[in-house]
Amino acid sequence: MSFMRYNAVFLLGITTFSGAIAFGDSAHAAAPRSLNAEVRVIVKLKSVKNSNSGAQKIQSESVLSKRYGSRVSDSLRILETTTASEAAEALFALSSDPTVEYAELDQVISVEMGRKKKRPTTPPPTPAPPPSGSAVTLPAVPNTLNFPSDTKLSEQWSVIPSKFSGSSYGINVYPLWQRAVTGSSNIVVAIVDTGIDHSHPDLSARIFHNAGEAGALAKNGIDDDHNGFVDDYTGWRFDSDAGDGNDASDDHTHGTHVSGIISAQSNNSAGMAGISWGSRLLPVRALDASGSGYLSDAVRGIQYATAMGAKIINISWGAGSSSQALKDAIGSARAKGILVVAAAGNDGVDTDVEGHYPSALDLDNIISVAATNRTGYLESFSNFGVKTVDITAPGRTILSTLPGGGYGTMSGTSMATPMISGVAALIWSGNPNLTIAQVRDRIFKCSTILPRTTDRSRIASGGIVNAWNAYHQQNCR
Ligand SMILES: [Ca+2]
Ligand SMILES: [Ca+2]
Ligand SMILES: [Ca+2]
């Protein structure tokens, strides 16, 4: 067992707030909870048909609970001990138990929100520099940004044409919007994060609701669709500490910010524009108001998103230790054709050498994402790795939604990751039969080449995501 080391998992955003933000101070000032993952052991039992002993068949649930911990999902149990040494003893014993497939320590996951800065002033639109890298010719547009009609569009450097942003290294999604490629409601993107402010005016119409718990069924205290979750009409909160529940709202900031980047309501004369504003967001809360939670809760969140029919799962956090439970959950998502987009991390390190998970897991349904800035350079905070980091996307001074109806900018691989989720949602909206491999190929091979050779040597695809190219499979390598 190599899971004894304490490892924090961090949400990968660095916040800079702007505009009127209506959430309470406690939301982002709360001290991390005193979660103690060192006393929690994640236990996976062998399935009965694979168990040589068949021991599970003859053991009652009460016996199983006592020995292996309480069942928290179809495949996982959590054995809670009282001290770290007890947990270590339990791990040792479980490692030779023929009924156990594996056991590992749980991990604490917590938000990393440092480097707060003053509100940046929005630069006035400037003439674009000569195009470099991208061979796509933007269509002629009026010299004012009047489509989509969102009032903060001019602050979104990564999605507007270079003539307005002054950068040739945005994601080139604007010409798709002009041709009415704006995403399909059939594509559900699960946000496994701190929750979503589902009443935000730029998000409320974009939330996926469970039809099996609709109307009067949403509050009747009954699991009407028999999926194991009572009244999960608007997502689910996985919280081993405070208790699970059907309130997946966001009293931090991070999950709401990630969500807006993907599919904030657009062309509604208000706020911002999301990349794939026709697609829908499934709120899966696994981190709380202090930005802390257990990895096992996030694993359960991934299992839930898989069961609820998500096509894409956005993971803007990471762990320092590998986890078989995490790998299993993403492997099960793969079997259902689900793409997982994962942040490469904000440590400024090579994750080929220093592990970061799930971004560096060896699964072909994971796209790991580094962060670039408006000059197309890899950000100094961004992790990299020519084997473990696939692609880059803008992750510096990104405007998006915040709880309470607000907007603000954040920087981090957390913000670059939903750029890829949004572009993948657009690709699938117009090409629903593409496989994960085909979508990955388009995103990697049809990307804008990173302008610096040093950056190209650190990223597998060597590129910045280019939505137009990927959607049309043009200008590919
Ligand atoms: Ca239910
Ligand atoms: Ca119900
Ligand atoms: Ca809007």
How are the secondary structure elements laid out?
Blueprint: E1 8-12, E2 14-17, H1 25-29, E3 40-45, H2 61-68, E4 70-71, E5 77-80, H3 84-94, E6 100-105, E7 108-112, H4 162-165, H5 174-178, E8 188-193, E9 236-237, H6 254-263, E10 280-285, E11 292-294, H7 295-307, E12 312-315, E13 317-319, H8 324-335, E14 339-343, E15 366-372, E16 391-394, E17 398-402, E18 406-411, H9 413-430, H10 436-445, E19 448-449, H11 453-456, E20 463-464, H12 467-472
Parallel strand pairs: 1-7, 8-10, 8-12, 9-10, 12-14, 14-15, 15-16
Antiparallel strand pairs: 1-13, 2-18, 3-5, 3-6, 4-5, 7-11, 17-18, 19-20
This protein binds calcium ion (3 copies).
Describe this structure in words.
The chain is of the alpha/beta class and 477 residues long. The protein has a domain of 326 residues: Rossmann fold (3-Layer(aba) Sandwich), CATH 3.40.50.200. Helix content is 22%, strand content 18%. It has 12 helices and 20 strands. The protein has a 7-stranded parallel sheet with strand order 9-10-8-12-14-15-16, sandwiched between helices. Strands 11-7-1-13 form a 4-stranded mixed sheet. α6 links the parallel β9 and β10. The longest helix has 18 residues. It is globular and about 70 Å long. The two termini are 42 Å apart. The relative contact order is 0.16. One calcium ion (CA) binds next to loops.
